[in-house]
Amino acid sequence: MFKKRTRNVALRVIKLVDALPNSRAADVIGRQLLRSATSIGANYRAACRSRSAADMVSRLSITEEDADKALYWLELLAQSNTVASPRLEPLRKEIGEIVAMTVTSIKTLRARPIQNPKSKI
User: Fold this and answer.
1) Less CB within 10 Å around the terminal CB: N or C of the chain?
2) Burial letters for 30-66: b for 16+ Cβ neighbours within 10 Å, e otherwise?
3) Domains in the chain, number
């Protein structure tokens, strides 16, 4: 379910970036937004294949960072009046939820006791 949500965000951002006005600022912000938003799902998928809790926390932290960056670029698009703020709100909400869920997952993983299968203790 979460993989699907992150993929849908990437697809929505691709469409948004393709529809941006033809200006230098929109091009720069669009490229940054596209890079960060498409990385959310890619890094989450990598986290799902982690070999340890520490590796998963590391990869989820990158997922969180990319999602937060995407929010930043969306804020710039709205505040610069490049795109009407109401048009971006559903996407901002979805990415905000992804950030919140990722942070919760990281906190949960960090709260778990470290389990080392090789340890006899």
Assistant:
1) C
2) bebbbebbbbbbebbebbeeeeeeeebbbbbebbbbb
3) 1
